[in-house]
């Protein structure tokens, strides 16, 4: 499907599910059915409500899903609060895709992969994980390390427990920050859990979450012998206009909208410490 990424098109919300107390996942289709446009894992789209505002969000569904696209959105401002009030059947404008995405048909192919996420940081990685699950023969082993403040803050927990854990070659490691009644799983912050798991440093890592989590997770990985050119992250929160024209996404000589949002950490090392 050919679609000019600069021109908004109308989509309709066909399903809404509440993942956590402050995260909802919205399923969007084109008015005539199907996806609004094609994308690759890690790319983003601009969602807008006329008269309210617009913002960039990761496309959380895999490109292998032909019927729709999904967006997991945390309630944290004016636009997201408005989105959280939407009902199934309402229309929204959408344009995209934007960004480079993860190299699922390039450098990641054939590799053993580790996905590390914290909180809503699972949203950008979910698209990649489900793409890899749908193409298992093209990738090695898969480990998913996912943590949140509490069990109630784990996004997509039903899909994780009912689908991901049952996929051959996929190992899921869940943790929460503090012990709570009814939780019999692991309790630790994500960086400490990564250290405890002791992964093979020859594996390739994709990490996304709060900046402080990423900082200490990267430190834990480096201490285990991982190479920075084998660790990827996404910086979609720095994206603004989507095409690098407004200049608000620049870091040094790079524009996150055009050159990212996906970067390896050795690429980030070449940039000013502004992120």
TrEMBL record:
InterPro entries: Cbr1-like_FAD-bd_dom, Cyt_c3_hydrogenase_gsu, Dihydroorotate_DH_Fe-S-bd, FAD-bd_FR_type, Flavoprot_Pyr_Nucl_cyt_Rdtase, FNR_nucleotide-bd, OxRdtase_FAD/NAD-bd, PyrK_electron_transfer. Its cofactor is [2Fe-2S] cluster. Residues 6-104 form the FAD-binding FR-type domain. Binds 1 [2Fe-2S] cluster per subunit. Signal peptide: none annotated. GO terms for molecular function: 2 iron, 2 sulfur cluster binding; flavin adenine dinucleotide binding; metal ion binding; oxidoreductase activity. Keywords: 2Fe-2S, Iron, Iron-sulfur, Metal-binding. [2Fe-2S] cluster binds at residues 241, 246, 249, 257. One of its GO terms (biological process) is pyrimidine nucleotide biosynthetic process. PANTHER family: ANAEROBIC SULFITE REDUCTASE SUBUNIT B, DIHYDROOROTATE DEHYDROGENASE B (NAD(+)), ELECTRON TRANSFER SUBUNIT. This is FAD/NAD(P)-binding protein. It comes from Candidatus Alectryocaccomicrobium excrementavium.
